[in-house]
## 1
Amino acid sequence: MAESNVRRRVNGRSARVRQSVIESTLELIREGGIDQLTVAQVASRSGVHETSIYRRWGSREKLLVEAILDLSESDLPVPDSGSFREDLTILATELCRYLSTPLGLAVAQLLSWPVKDPAVAEMQGGVWRERTAAAAVVVKRAIDRGEIPENTDPGLVIELLVAPIHWRALVLKEELGPDLAVTLAKVVFDGVRCSRP
């Protein structure tokens, strides 16, 4: 009985430590992005010793990716307006808004980092696949409504919509104005509609 009580306390403490470290990491990302973020800063903010953080996560990159994975899915809700073009516009607008915030840009940067650790690379790929699949629901609904051809590839449509936004944010470092989202949604919408057999 005493052993199970100890185990429960340890697990409870472990969960609190993890939560404190993850929350501190996300706060620091929101404040200054990921480029200058250090494990020492996370340790200082969370009150968890730096060696404990390294022991649990192994690297700064693994910690950052796990923190990003903990983010709520509500950051980028999937629209359902009943109109394919409107849903594309909303998706593009929300992505532009999100990538214009320090946290959103940091998330995209982190998910685009070239990494040597296969576990981190798999985590990155998993996030991209999950986000693409979540957004692809918009395309599947449009297929079901008969707005676009049945043989439309939902994942490819989402990639065509979001890739230019990420390119401008991450590579060109340009501002993501409201006109960009509307233009991209129209181009993708027109392209998919024109592909009718």
## 2
Amino acid sequence: MGHKAELKRNFSMLSMLGLAFAILNSWTALSASLSISLPSGGCVSVIWGLITAGICNLCMSASLAEFLSAYPTAGGQYHWVAVSWENWMPALSWITGWANASGWVALTATGGLLGSELIIGVISLMHPSYVSQRWHQFLIYIAYNVIAFLINAFMNSLLPLFTKGAFIWSLTGFAVICITLLACAAPNYSSGEFVFGKFINETGWPDGLAWLLGLLQGGLGLTGFDGVAHMIEEIPNPSIVGPRIMIGCVLIGTFTGTIFLIVLLFVSGNIYDDISSTATPLLQIFVNATGSNAGSICLLIFPLVCVLFASITIMTTSSRMIYAFARDGGLPASPFFSKVHNKLEVPLNALYLTNILVIIFGCIFLGSSSAFNAIVSASVVMLDIAYGIPIAVNCLRGRKMLPERSFVLPSAVGWTANLVALGYISFTTVLFLFPPDYPVTGSNMNYCVAVFGIILVISMFQWIVDGRKNFTGPRMDVDVLSGQVGAGSDPVEEVVQQNDLQEK
């Protein structure tokens, strides 16, 4: 927002939908995070929790799709709060930008988190006497993120190839695993009553609260759809195509995730053994269905590579989000983090910051037995807050501030979607800060609370010493506000072009 459209639009609707599907990677994230929902409601939480999260995330995506249609800009949510009251706009933009940037950093961390969990599971399966140490997983986690960093920093030109490969690999893995598991397990399937009605509570919390905590799995598998907004400048007709992609990726993620989880539960075998398995529930289900350790590990290669692809793509989006926010003066040392490397043509300093913060996130591994839940909670909570602020502003202003646009929800549907989204965000923002187990100890505490508090303190301090004086919010372009221009040019490419002109 604030720049004329200059970036060449290379992505079709189908290719961008594939990219969004690769970012969400719903079936992989949902299956790899079964350790969240199986003890917190069992099959009931896995299936019906996902459907509940799917409906609520669909309401969120539809609500934000209206903004995307009106203002298809890479800044996304912290630009969209420009429809708020003039005096409040800088502060709301500041809060939204910090929440969104923090959420994407935490979401980047979940890639290495899921990958390290699966690799530790493989080691445990092949070596039953192996005793996993927290620092083992921490090192694998770092390796995952370093690989993602190196590819983002030094193989930027190959990123489109990676994203296309990720889409094909993900769809292939989805089909191959489903067919293989059903064929190998036949006819020893679990009953429909078990798959859709088995309730388990091993958390120590009351049954109702346990089921609600299991919603975190669905939240993880469907969050990140705003990545479409941060890449919107690279597709033709963004105000028309963008909203379709944003809503479509949530629908596809919910559908494929539900199908895949149903397949897993039908071939799950003894569900209590799956929950307690040191090989992770996903790999144990593979073993139960195929009867082969080697075959199960071969199948696991699909989600392992999917997670790596997701880590690469999410780190790209996270670094761009940090870069864009720094470019608007929203971060400490903004001039430093808004620099673009002349030769690599990437925001290298923003990439460094992303990777450093992700590694710091990983330190939770060393002190908490519930690090998995803490990191996942941080990503979902922060992103949901960033989704909720522009939606809330839109509602408080009577849904009348968005200009004429191609995607408009009918009044009743719009209000329903907005209110459902806000209710879900308000409820889960508190709920997902709960520890996964009761009684609560220092080890199983949900350190998302601490992460949330640290980010809040830093952002407030930065606002007091600098932001309230110098941060005016996103730069506004009159043409953009009137709906005549869809998006600004890519900030990174813009700086590179300026550098080239200076050299000439």
## 3
Amino acid sequence: MGGRLHAQEYSTEIVADSLTRLVQAQSEAIDRGDYPEAEKLLRQALPLIRDKNARAMLLTNLGTVYQRLAQLDQALLSYSAALALNEDLASTRDSRAMIYAATGKMQQAVLDYSYLCQLYPLNEIYRYKRAMVYVSMKRYAEAEADLCSILEHNTGSLKASEGLALVYTLTGQYDRAERLYNDLIEKLPGQSLGYEGRARLFLLSGKPGFALRDIDKAFECTDQPSAALYRLRADICQIIGDEKAAHADRSMAERMTSAQIRGDR
């Protein structure tokens, strides 16, 4: 009859309204950092969604929530479920690759970053991240190839230059590494990047005094030292016999790494 909704249409309208409210509420919960509430709302919303792309979006959000809660296995399951619906979700695949790398699943991380590099061959971020995973796997030739590829398209990429200097450092090519670090310091005298790398170089080449000088300078140049910076200073302190300082820096690095894996801001 005119002016009336059939039962099925009425039911569909209720579901749509409920879904809209749930999606809005989960977004607000994530924004305010109430991740347990966001998880509950997402789990209520997902059974109501049939559209593949919308489900993939909410599954990605659920993965982010689990990541913030440090439930990394659940985060991986959610990201993987999202990618099964849409394999080209770049940010989702990037998030999954980051967890893989952080939890030692390096080959899986390489596969995800390789997929992203295939999708976006000129994207420097994905190629740099893959290079750093290769470094972690001691696959230095492949890391060097990725970094050189970045520099071929962008000769001014300082991150790629820093990465290449790291590869040279870890493969014992200290002179080549030092030249690159000196160049970085000359171009960025007020930033920690070059000093951190050169400190690592001096440590590995048996010059702890020079390493300590550069690591101190690196800390002076940044208001937000990274976990890697604390870890490197811990290694230097241990070599020079300051065990107390080394322990303090390692503890700080561990706390920061845990926060980074969760995606804390």
## 4
Amino acid sequence: MNNPWLNIPISDYESHMALPTVDQSSMTADEFSRVLSQFTPESVAVIGCAGGNGFDAIPSSTRRVVGVDINPGYVARARERYEERILNLEFHVADVQADLLAFDPVDLIFASLVFEYVSLAETLENLSRVCRPGGRLVALLQQPSETMTSLTPSPYRSIQSLSQLMRLIPPSEFTGHAESAGFALESGRIVTIRAGKSFAVQVYCRKS
């Protein structure tokens, strides 16, 4: 089956995420900024980087930045926006559940709204190979709502193709797979955005 992410234009994706009824772009950028401040990594990888949402918050003290996305159009847009602004920036077009990631291990891996669309075991094994011992994995996981659909209705028709792929992941299930891949849970909290949906922010440390 062709991955539906390959057929969603970056303009549709970014416009959808910025809708008041979705309101997830700012949440992702804010959480990325927060963990950069908390952990001050010298190297960071953003999984599902799309067009580079949140990259404006990357400080000069972060000396290596890796962006990964399955959609080459998203990577091209992020490169266009940031390759002249961020030193030692590299991009990889990859399916994180199937492809070996071809970059050196980093101090921090940030993945927002990625794990709902991939196989957990394979993806976390791949990510463990590119997270240095003692490094962190930060995962943002959408939580179920009693009043809202998992995939918010959108005027951008291409977005609706994701419904065939999307699956919400309970934090406990995610933690089980993460531990099997060599990550230990450090903290977890819930963020609720103005649009009404809630997200688990899970922080894991890569075991030595």
